Structure formats: structure tokens, C-alpha cells
Amino acid sequence: MLRAADGAARTAQKLRALEIEPVLSPVLEIAATGARLPQGAYDAVLASSAKGVERARVADAFKALPLHAVGERTAHAAQALGFRPDIVAGNAEAILPLLLARHRRPAHFLYLAGRDRQPLLEAGLKTAGHLVAVVEVYEARAATALSQAAVDAIAAGEIAAVLHYSRRSAEIFLALAKEAGILEKARAALHLALSQEVAQPLLSENIPNVGVAERPDEEHLLELLARRVA
Predict the structure, then answer these.
(1) Which SS3 state, helix, strand or coil, does residue 68 take?
(2) Cβ neighbours around 96 below 10 Å, total
(3) Is 219 left (phi over 0), alpha (psi -120 to 50) or beta?
(4) Top CATH class, 5-27+143-229
(5) What's the CA gap between 31 and 75, in Å, rounded?
(6) Tens-binned pLDDT, residue by residue, of the chain (230 aa)
(7) CA geometry: angle at 130 spanning 122 and 167, to 5°?
């Protein structure tokens, strides 16, 4: 499993509950950028990840604003920090029409974002005439190597499946596997991706056995895993 360390620990528990033993090799390290939030009159705060609210330096004045969150975990993390979660949806595609229905007049959003992200949410709001102040409060830094446990397990042919959560992490995995000399061994494993976008680097590398979750969330990814490795 390639998730960043904080998410990997939670997913590892879910895998063990499915009687699947995880091998962890985070290929991304999440770090705060230290970016300052611009002062201004905002109508709402946007957060597409729990990492955004957890790593932002947010004044109490901003916490009084309604917060629109992508994902229940983002909403829970925001509430724990004193925000007021309002609209919550599973992904950017789902939350965008809800935001446009709620904010029919031009609004000013403060978006707590990651440095590497899909632009759909901010682009959709701007196209509809809204102002979006994007603040990149965290970044995902690429690992320099796979974990030794992962290298050994792949080399020994002991990995049944590899879980891919983002296009960037899939790209990093392929590069690190190639650098470690185990890419050909890694090809033999089942590779499961959160979405078609995440799967693209695997397909471009001609990985023979790639599966895509029915919906782009972990629940459906693990459901796919349970079906494919049973």
C-alpha cells in the first residue's frame, strides 16, 4: 500500500479486518507549506482534504464561516478544529453542483488546498463567476525509495495486490520500482486504482492486470480488492 503514512495506518487496520496483511510503503510525505491565509471578506471556506484543515494556520474569524468539505473525514477533522461543516460530498464532482445551487450569486471562497490537486473544483466555481482564493497549505513530497519490506516482498513474488490512491503516487511507485530493479516483478501483481485517472500511469506502463474501483473512494477500492483476491 502506497498511501502517505497517516492514511496508510488507517487503511492497514481495514485490510487486517478483511484478513489481508498489508505491506506499507508510503511514496508521499505530507508536509505543511506554512502558507499564510490572505485576509479578506469570505463567504465560506473550502477544503478537499483533512490535510488541508489540519495543516492550515487558520484564525478563529475564518472558523466562524461555513465550511464546505469534500469527504466525511475532512468534515470531521474540520469540526474537531472548530469549523462549522456545511455542505459535505464525496468528491469534487459531487460537491460542485451543490455549491453552485447554494451560492447562486457571486461568492468569495477561501480554499485550503494541496499543492498537487485536480483543478475541477476551483475551475468550476470560477467559471460560474465566483472568486476563489486558493491557499496551498500542504504539499506531498515524493519518497526517495520504496520501503525495504515492500522491495523484498515484491522481489519474492509475495505481493498479491498494490493499491493506488492518486495518479502521482502511481507514477512515483513505478519510478521507484524501476530504480529498485523490481518493476518486472511488480507487473505480476494485481494493481487496483481509485479511479480511471489514477490508473493511467499503470496502463501507460502496460501493467497487465489493472482494476478500477466502481466509485473513487476507499470503500469501493477495498470492496474491489476483497472480490479480486478472495
Answers:
(1) strand
(2) 20
(3) alpha
(4) alpha beta
(5) 20
(6) 677 777 777 888 888 888 889 999 999 888 899 998 988 899 999 999 998 899 888 878 899 999 999 999 899 999 999 999 999 998 888 999 999 999 999 999 999 999 988 899 999 999 999 999 999 999 988 999 999 999 999 999 999 999 999 899 999 999 999 999 999 999 999 999 999 999 999 999 999 999 999 988 889 999 999 999 86
(7) 5
Whether pTM > 0.85 for this model: the answer is no
Is-same-fold flag (5-27+143-229; 31-141)? yes
Strand partners of residue 70: 89
Cell of 206: 502496460
The CA distance from 173 to 169, in Å, is 6
The domain limits of the chain are 5-27+143-229, 31-141
Contact 213, 192 (CB under 8 A): yes
Write the CA distances from 6 to 9, 25, 168, integer angstroms: 6, 12, 17
Cβ neighbours of 213 (radius 10 Å): 22
Four-CA torsion 9, 15, 16, 17, nearest 10 degrees: 120
Q: Pull the grid cell for residue 93.
A: 464532482
Please give the sequence-ordered ranges of beta strands (E in DSSP) within the chain, or none if there are none. 28-32, 44-47, 66-70, 84-89, 108-114, 131-142, 161-164, 190-193, 210-212
The CATH topology of domain 31-141 is Rossmann fold (3.40.50)
- CA separation for the pair 23, 162 (Å, rounded): 9
